[in-house]
Amino acid sequence: MKNKFRIPLNRPALVGSELRYIGDALRRGQISGDGFYTRRCSAYLEHLLGARRVLLTPSCTHALELAFLLLPTEPGQEVLCPSFTFPSTANAFVLRGLKPRFIDIRPDTLNMDERLVEASITRRTAAITPVHYAGVPCQMDVIMNVARKHHLTVVEDAAQALGARFRKRPAGTFGALNAFSFHETKNCMCGEGGALVIMESRYTRRAEIIRQKGTNREAFYRGETDKYSWVDRGSSYVPSELQTAYLMAQLEKLEAITRRRRHLYESYHEALTPLEARGLLQLPIIPKDCESSYHLFHVLFETGHERQRVMSAMQRKGIYATFHFLPLHLSAMGRCFGYRKGDFPVTESASDRLLRLPLYNSMTPSEQDQVIRALKTLF
Ligand SMILES: *Cc1c(COP(=O)(O)O)cnc(C)c1O
Question: Does the Cβ of 216 fall within 6 Å of ligand 1?
Fold first, then answer.
């Protein structure tokens, strides 16, 4: 399926010292987790984000699960989040017996509409989980004010937003606990990977224990105890040194990666502006108080029918332009929670009309040119 496309949606690529670092990890003789490279990645991210602690995980999904294992919640409570997101956002707390209380998105950024958050809070609300769509931060000032007023914990799904900022503050540092993804499709990646960002130190010790199979192994490594044993509930949320060695090579190129993606984003924007002027499509926007991570580039068509026409034509030309997200409230699981078609009109409309264009770190000017020309000839 993937191979029939001349230009894929995403193409994982080496950006620097990946192979050298993996070789070094092998020579160091530890390829299980929490060795030299895992510590380096954590330290890098802690410094970048000003976090109390950053714990590398095998995926963003695991980081979100770890966040909801740490929060004192009870089954039947609710978490506010967008329906326009990846299933992991909701699955992390559904595993704890919590329910998603979906919130519609803004028609411009496709982020959770911050003006709708407060009205959705009930006695059962336990947390708010904003998602920074495409790497454009949500309006975190409004969301944090509402959270403080109602004593709610914020857990950001910052999967797409490494390097993004809202009013100069990095995405993934507003909530008490936040998650990043290093999946192959993300800006910085290691195949599969993620990180839990801890902004409040009261969560650190238990996060380390849960991540290390319910043991105090982390404290043992630091020499704080002379043996380690089973002290709490836990699981295994530790990536291997092979993954984190790869990741370190990508993280040290974060600025160059963001610059490169910004350039691709702006080239698309500029080239497609005449189509927008003719009313043929709508281009993405980045609000003035936001700096994007330029994770992806999407356009919105007037109708779902038009999106379908353009998508099929692009794919026939060997260019993998595609859609997302299927709204969670219309999925089989969403319907189990009682949601129906029509509940979130902006989400449903955007999901119908959205087309993603190929954008990846190693995309060449010629490849981007082919995408733009293919799109233009369809009008
Ligand atoms: C990619 C993504 C995830 C899942 O990340 P994994 O590392 O694959 O678990 C979760 N939420 C959002 C918004 C994502 O884009």
Answer: no
Nearest CA to ligand 1 atom 5: 60
pLDDT band at 4 (very low <50, low <70, confident <90, very high): confident
H helix or E strand, kind and range, residue 166 = strand 165-166
- Beta strand 125-128 with 354-357 is unpaired
Environment class of 146 (CB within 10 Å of its CB; exposed 0-12, middle 13-18, buried 19+): buried
Q: Count the helix, strand and coil residues of the chain and give each as a percent rounded to the nearest 5.
A: 40, 15, 40
C-beta separation of 94 from 120 below 8 A: no
Please state, as a whole number, how many other Cβ atoms lie within 10 Å of the Cβ of residue 141.
Answer: 14
The ligand 1 atom nearest the CA atom of 182: 7
Buried b (16+ CB within 10 A) or exposed e, 3-17: eebebbbbebeebeb
Secondary structure (DSSP) of 209-254: HHHBTTB-HHHHHTTSSSS--B-S---B----HHHHHHHHHHHTTH
Distance (Å) from CA 181 to ligand 1 centroid: 6
Q: Quick one: tokens of 357?
A: 């264009």
C-alpha to C-alpha distance for 244 and 38, rounded to whole angstroms: 5
Which residues lie across from 169 on neighbouring strands?
Answer: 166
d(C-alpha 338, C-alpha 340), whole Å: 7
Quick: pLDDT tens for 24-45: 999 999 999 999 999 999 999 9
Backbone angles phi, psi at 180, to 5 degrees: -115, 155
Give, to the nearest 10 degrees, the angle between helix 36-49 and helix 18-28: 130
| Most informative mutation of 10, 55, 56, 60 for ligand 1 (most atoms within 8 A of CB) | 60
Taking the C-alpha atoms of residue 66 and residue 211, their distance in angstroms, rounded to an integer, is 7
Ligand 1 binding pocket includes 187 (Cβ within 6 Å): no
Q: Contact at 8 Å (CB) between 328 and 295? A: no
pLDDT digits (tens, 9 = 90+) for 274-298: 999 999 999 999 999 999 999 999 9
Q: How far is the CA of 61 from the centre of ligand 1 (A)?
A: 6
